[in-house]
Structure formats: structure tokens, C-alpha cells
Amino acid sequence: MIRTPLRPLAAIMSARAAGQDPDLIEAENTRARMAALHEYLLVMTRRRLLMLSAMFAVAFGMIGFQMVALAVSDPVEPRSNASAAKILANRADIVDRNGRVLATNIDTFSLYAHPHQIIDKDAAAEQLAQIFPDLEEEKLKKQFHGGQKFLWVKGHISPEEKQAVHDIGDPGLLFGPREMRLYPNEAVAAHILGGTTFGEQGTHAAEVVGVAGVEKRFDDFLRDPAKEGAPLELSIDLTVQAALEDVLSRGMVVMNAKGASAVLMDAHTGEIAAMASLPDFDPNNRPRVLTEGAQDDSPLFNRAVQGMYELGSALKIFTTAQAMELNLVNANTKIDTRGPLKWGKFKIRDFSNYGPNLTTKKVIVKSSNIGTARIAMMIGGSRQKSFLESLGFLEPTPIELIEGPTGRPQFPKNWSDISTMTISYGHGISTSPVHLAAAYASITNGGTLVEPTLLKRQDRTPGPRVVSQNVSAHARDMLRAVVTEGTASFGEVPGYFVGGKTGTADKPKPSGGYYNDKVIATFASVFPTHDPKYVLILSLDEPEDRTGPEPRRTAGWTAVPVAAEAIRRVAPLLGMAPDVDPTGKPSVTLTSN
Q1: CA distances from 231 to 407, 513, 553, 565 (A)
Q2: Residues 312 and 332 in one domain
């Protein structure tokens, strides 16, 4: 900007020549300069006032907005997110095959204390002990007076308990938000679900981690934020599971059994529709692991998966099926059943004298140990072992439970001739009900291998073939005959054409040998036999039918009637309508999946 001089020389010279006062020119220029400066300062002042007004308007607007937000919100205690930022508390739901909730989360609270802030330590300890009977008053007093600045009191409390503690009114008792695992069906499917506990904990969050069952096996999946809360879908049907557990519980009482287990499996996919083990527990209040005594006495023990039992004659059908597959026998081949069958110092006997011979089919129907052992010797130990291995009998339980690998079958290292004979009728090899269910499904579904699973499957791709369709059909025919004319006559369920095989095995003593009055009674069944849909394995531990003059322990008197009642209850729930065709043509209609 060019500044105008106050006394321009040309103007001064012109003013003097014209006889005017040159000082008037300077005065006029001074006035003009001051007017311009005043205008500039006025503009700048207005701009600054506008900017300051805008800043005040924004600031007061934000304050007003925050005040309105606080006025319309619920009053809560402020919480710091930074202290719990590294704790992942969210856990996905677990649902059954129809989307019904088996495990979910609820919001609750933890209770902790700052002892140095507690006003009346003795009174607070006394009142807390009244609210929580499991807390010891004297121990609380000692902890409150111990000089600690932080103390966990309860990991999670109910809203009612929170209100009771709040009413104490002591500033040293504080609450932290918690997400707690809830099992709304209580003990139903307890051994499948397992349970959870708290891992890493902070005052404003706690890590929920699985300790058993699918909760432990799929812990990473359930806690993965990338899954965006997608639930874990199991293969079990909640309604069927509850019905099976109810029947099994009642049967266990009626048959005076120590324990019981059941596995209901889709014969084609290996999906487990229900699996139960008794006694059971409530995962909302999971009991402690036994520190002494036999673990199978604990309600935490999963008999269907971890229980390794000699399942007796239920294994005979595999010997017969393998022999037919090898073309060593057919259903009508006569088998020598004269006894006892001697092998060195060992003698193999039958329950009754079945005469000099039986057909292969009758060996299964009458459950002849001698006949089965002779068929096994035709097969040979090496081929027998390979066949049982192909059915999964020699590997840990292949199921999606953390307990699965602990279910290791027991069999002789030296597979001798006597082992071949005794294993053929289910003695000398210990395996789980889940193993047996998968093997029965594989033999009866047309001869293709299935692997047991607790996850819902969409595909029904057949597994590798273990026996031909012809052998599978003959095996089903034999199993059906066991029910219609053999040892499982109590297993008939009108309209469902049940087939199966009984198995009664003496329980081994911990010190060696076997009990004379304690057995594991098993009924391995398939229904309907002409078009298998499901396999049911039901076992009772130390059952006794005491309705007669003498206790009856065999599977035909104990496990079979309980299994029949279970099929009668669950088949309609599975969408299977009984055959009511007046022509008698076998048919079971699948109304839903």
C-alpha cells in the first residue's frame, strides 16, 4: 500500500503560489489518514467479536447438548473401559439343531471391596455373611482389617443380592459388570455342554472360558469376535434329548442301576440326536472334580464317551458280518455249537445247550458264544483286528468333546487265538457306547462308515464301504430276529420294526478278575430295520430287575425294556410315524427332520 505524505511538495508549492495556507493541506491529509485507520480498526474489531461469539456459541451448544443427554439417560456409575480393554468377555450362544438355546449369556455383577474405604469393617463383614451364607464372617473381618487395598468378594451376584449389598451403604463395597454363562435347561445335555468358569478378571469385565464338553472343545470359536456372535449349532435335538434323559433316569431307578448311558445317532450321517450319561449335573453349578476314589463315580464322568466297557454279545454281529463279507459263511451255514469249547486251560460256554449246531442267523438270535467263537477262528485274529480297526473300535472316541481323546479302547497287545475268540463275543475288549453306536450305524445303514459328530451336518455324503449292501441287509435281518424271536423280545415297539442285539458283560474288579453279581447290560438297536434311520445304544451299570424271586441282571430283562420305552418316546419326536398300514407292508414315514 502506497502511503500519501502529509505535506506533498507539489501541493505545498501550489498553495503558496496561490496565497493559501500550506498547513491546511497537512491537517486535511492527517484527518484522512486517521479516518482510514479508524475504519480499518473498526472492521478488525467486528471480525474478532464475531469469531469470539461463534466460539462461545459452539462451546455452550456442546455443554447444553451434554446436559440434555445426561438428563434423559438412566443414572449409572461411570466405568473405565481402559482397564478391561484386553479382556474379551463376549461368548457366542450354543443352540440345538433347531436353533433352540442350550447356552447363552446374562448380564450380572461382581462384588469387590476397597477395605481402606470401608467405614465399619466389622458391620460390613457381618451383613455380607448374612447376604451370602457361603462367606465366613470371621474370614471377611480378617481380610478387611488386613491392610489390603483391593479384595474380590464374589465373582458374580444376582440383582437381588446386588440390591442387598447396595443397601448396606458402605462406599468401600463396589460392583463391576459381568457376563455370566447361563444354561436355561439346567441339567439337560450337561455332559455335552460341559460348563465354563471365569478366566482373566478385571473390575469391569471377566473372561468366560470353557472347562469341559463342547464349551472347552470350541472355546476359540465361541470367543472369536470375527464370528460376529454366530452361534455354535449342535446336532442334538433339545426335545429328544430331554425325553431320552427322562426315560433313562426312570429306567435307572426301576432297574436299580448305579449308572446309565444312551447314544441316539443318525444311521447315515453319524449326527448324534441325543446323548445322555447318568448321574449328571447342572452346569450352572458345576461340581468339583473328585480328588480321590474312582472318577466314574463322579457325576462329571461321561459314561457314553469316557466309559470303556466290555459290551458283551452286542459285538457278535460284527463277527458274523465280517465272516459273511469274506464269504466264509452265509445266513444258513451250520455252525458247530457243541460245548464247552476248550482252548488250553480256557473253556467257552453258552448260556444254554443249543444243540450240536446252529445256523449263522441262529447263532446271533440265540447269542451263542461257542458259535461266534468258531466263526471268529474262521476269520483269524489278524483279519478280525483289521476289521474292528476299520470300524473305529481301536482308536480314541472320535467326537467333538474335550473328553473324547480320553476314551481310549482297551484291547490285548498280543492278539492271540483266545483273544480272537473272546473278542468275537465282546469280552477282552473295552470300548465306549459312542464307538458301538458308530459301528452299528456303519454295519446297518447299507455298509458305509459313519463318524460320530455333535455338529449339525448339511451333507449326507456316504463314507467308505465296510461291508456290502447284501451283508448289511442280512445283518439287519438277524438283528430284527433277535427282537422277534430271540433274547430281546421286550424290545419290540409296534410300528417301528426294532432290531438289535443284547450284551451282558461281567464287571471287572479293580484288583483283577470279575464280579459274580455285577454286570454292564447293553442293548444296541436300530430302527426301522428295513430302512434304518437311527441307532440307539443304551447301557445300564449294575442293573437288577427285582420283580421276580431272584434278581435278573441280563440285558434282555434290564436294558432292553428301557431302550424300547426310549424308542417309543423319541421316535415320534424325530418325525417318524409308526407303520399303520393294514396290509402289514413295512413302512415308516419321516415327517420332518
Answers
A1: 27, 48, 44, 33
A2: yes
Which of 272, 302, 284 is CA-nearest to residue 103? 284
Beta-ladder partners of 458? none
Q: What is the predicted pLDDT for the residue at 80?
A: 44
Q: What is the pLDDT of residue 293?
A: 66
More confident residue, 492 or 406: 492
How far apart (Å, rounded) are the C-alpha atoms in residues 504 and 19? 146
> Which pLDDT tens digit goes with each residue over 204-253?
667 788 899 999 999 999 988 888 889 999 999 999 999 999 999 999 99
Note the pTM of the prediction, 2 decimals: 0.79
Distances (CA, A) of 109 to 152, 158, 163, 177, 348: 12, 7, 11, 5, 65
pLDDT confidence band for 449 (50 / 70 / 90)? very high
Residue 31 within a domain: no
252 shares a domain with 190: no
Question: From the candidates 261, 277, 313, 432, which is the catalytic residue?
Answer: 313
In this structure, the answer to whether residues 161 and 265 fall within a common structural domain is no
Strands 589-590, 576-577: parallel, antiparallel or unpaired by DSSP? antiparallel
d(CA 219, CA 402): 10
Q: Which of 233, 256, 278 is the last residue of a domain?
A: 233
The residue out of 192, 216, 233 marking a domain boundary is 233
Number of folded domains that form the chain: 2
DSSP 397-440: --SSSTTGGG---B--SS--HHHHHHHHTT-S-BB-HHHHHHHH
The CATH number of residue 400's host domain is 3.40.710.10
User: What are 157's strand-pairing partners?
Assistant: 109
Which distant-in-sequence residues (6+ apart) come within 8 Å of 338 by Cβ? 356, 357, 370
Active site residue 110: no
C-beta of residue 401 within 8 angstroms of C-beta of residue 302: yes
Single-letter amino acid code for the residue at 185 = N
In whole angstroms, give the CA distance from residue 194 to residue 547.
37
Half-sphere exposure of 312 (CA within 13 A, CB side): 26
Looking at residue 498, its pLDDT comes to 96
The answer to whether residue 488 sits within a structural domain is yes
Dump pLDDT digits (tens) for 46-92.
888 888 888 888 888 888 888 877 777 665 544 444 444 455 557 89
Task: With beta carbons less than 8 A apart as the criterion, state whether 490 and 556 touch.
Answer: yes
CB-based contact 501:316 (threshold 8 Å): yes
Selection from 312, 367, 309 nearest residue 541 by Cα: 309
Q: How confident is the model at residue 583 (pLDDT cuts 50, 70, 90)?
A: very low
Domain assignment of residue 172, given as a range: 86-233
Same-domain status, 316 and 204: no
Is 38 within the bounds of a domain? no
* 320 and 222 in a common domain: no
In a shared domain, residues 155 and 265 = no
Check whether residue 220 and residue 121 sit in a common domain. yes
Residue 223 lies in a domain: yes
Could you give the CA distance from residue 368 to residue 354 in angstroms, rounded to a whole number? 8
Residue 192 grid cell: 455335552
